[in-house]
């Protein structure tokens, strides 16, 4: 044994002798409440705890008790000029909200980077008055008003919200709040690239062409309401503004209004458009008019924030050459059984078209949706390429591989089956792949694996199929 090792002073180690970096990294595994308890251990941990990002960077207010408000002030003060995320969600009207909580939100405006405020509609005027102050670091804003039966106040968002000069605001989400159609300019909207405007299904609203005037930089627009009406014809400026959109999502509760939207609004040059709910067959094909075959056709889970993927899913049609995409957001309940005789069908017209399959290059489906969609694919048995996306579970343990769907369906002309995942990789048992191929494509000889790792007896796959 070396002399230097013998002479090294051996002494007991204590938790208080840990380097601050180790304690700070450990706090990342704790919730805010746990960090608050840990900060009570000693003065050193208190200093590290209250300066940890969990304490000051991600702030949520759901209570208006005196203690909760005092802690809220302390957390905001600890940000010390650094941008932070602030979420306020308090239902019901109270003098405490008007007198204290609104003031706290106003005091946070100067440094907040991501602000979400959900309050009772009765405090609307106080909320708008507070929002007139500048928020130079604000990038994302979400405002929501609670009211009985979602009765939307008729007072629109003030034109001078967040000051009278353009800021860095890029993302806006408004729930049950009207925008001023007569406003020529709203400075804080100048640099907005994403706008989501949601109104109740009971509301009738004019098509919001004025939004493109208020948001000259707009790239993504989501609009929800009950019924859409139209005033003056679209001007060249309106058409040009709509064409600049990269993504446009519309959710209209009334069926007739959905059909009118497709026939009236110039969507031909918009790269990606999503429409929610059921469409009549004529509207389905009018919606697809800008696209040219061959198509990439598939069924996928909804992408946030469009809707709840547990209740809905997307039918996607994409032009292979131009990459323009049209998406139908559908309710899963409409596809759980085939309509009975005399029952109105809610199934998308493309699934009842005997000829559409000849125009598609590939058919794709999320694995979690395959059991739901298989009974509706009778006209698609002759497709040549099928892509199954392994989506509902991340299997990184070779001892517990991904389980392929057990749905009974058989392709008759399949030449290539592709298994893929959008994760880094996923384990799938070779025997499970063979059983799946025997069920859905017994004559298919080519198999493509994208980020799929075989486990088990891999020769069952490698000797039987031409791997791509």
From TrEMBL:
<dbReference type="Pfam" id="PF12937">
    <property type="entry name" value="F-box-like"/>
</dbReference>
<dbReference type="InterPro" id="IPR001810">
    <property type="entry name" value="F-box_dom"/>
</dbReference>
<feature type="domain" description="F-box">
    <location>
        <begin position="12"/>
        <end position="59"/>
    </location>
</feature>
<dbReference type="InterPro" id="IPR036047">
    <property type="entry name" value="F-box-like_dom_sf"/>
</dbReference>
<protein>
    <recommendedName>
        <fullName>F-box domain-containing protein</fullName>
    </recommendedName>
</protein>
């Amino acid at each position: 044994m070396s002399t230097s090792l013998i002479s090294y002073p051996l002494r007991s180690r204590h938790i208080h002798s840990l380097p601050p970096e180790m304690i700070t990294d450990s706090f990342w595994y704790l919730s805010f409440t746990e960090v608050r308890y840990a900060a009570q251990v000693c003065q050193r941990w208190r200093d590290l705890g209250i300066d940890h990002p969990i304490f000051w960077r991600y702030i949520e207010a759901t209570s208006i008790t005196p203690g909760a408000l005092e802690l809220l002030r302390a957390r905001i003060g600890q940000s010390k000029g650094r941008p932070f995320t602030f979420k306020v969600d308090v239902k019901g009207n109270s003098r405490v909200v008007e007198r204290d909580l609104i003031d706290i939100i106003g005091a946070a405006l100067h440094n907040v980077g991501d602000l979400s405020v959900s309050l009772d509609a009765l405090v609307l005027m106080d909320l708008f008055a507070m929002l007139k102050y500048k928020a130079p670091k604000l990038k994302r804003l979400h405002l929501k008003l609670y009211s009985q039966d979602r009765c939307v106040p008729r007072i629109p968002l003030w034109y001078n919200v967040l000051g009278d000069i353009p800021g860095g605001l890029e993302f806006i989400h408004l729930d049950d709040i009207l925008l001023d159609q007569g406003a020529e300019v709203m400075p804080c909207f100048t640099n907005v690239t994403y706008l989501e405007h949601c109104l109740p299904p009971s509301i009738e609203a004019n098509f919001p062409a004025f939004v493109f005037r208020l948001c000259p930089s707009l790239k993504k627009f989501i609009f929800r309401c009950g019924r859409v009406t139209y005033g003056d014809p679209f001007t060249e400026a309106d058409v040009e503004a709509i064409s600049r959109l990269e993504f446009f999502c519309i959710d209209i509760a009334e069926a007739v209004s959905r059909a009118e939207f497709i026939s009236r609004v110039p969507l031909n040059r918009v790269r990606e458009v999503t429409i929610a709910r059921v469409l009549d067959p004529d509207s389905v094909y009018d919606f697809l008019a800008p696209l040219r075959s061959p198509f990439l056709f598939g069924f996928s889970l909804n992408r946030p924030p469009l809707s709840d993927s547990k209740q809905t899913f997307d039918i996607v049609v994409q032009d292979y050459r131009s990459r323009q995409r049209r998406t139908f957001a559908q309710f899963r309940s409409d596809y759980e059984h085939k309509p009975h005789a005399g029952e109105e069908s809610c199934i998308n017209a493309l699934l009842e078209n005997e000829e559409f399959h000849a125009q598609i290059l590939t058919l794709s489906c999320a694995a979690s949706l395959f059991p739901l969609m298989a009974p509706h694919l009778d006209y698609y048995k002759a497709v040549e390429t099928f892509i199954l996306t392994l989506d509902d579970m991340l299997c990184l343990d070779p001892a517990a591989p991904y389980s392929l769907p057990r749905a009974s369906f058989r392709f008759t002309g399949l030449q290539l089956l592709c298994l893929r995942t959008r994760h880094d990789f996923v384990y799938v048992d070779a025997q499970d792949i063979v059983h799946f191929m025997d069920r859905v494509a017994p004559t298919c000889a080519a198999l493509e694996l994208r980020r799929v790792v075989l486990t088990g007896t891999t020769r069952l796959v490698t000797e039987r199929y031409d791997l791509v």
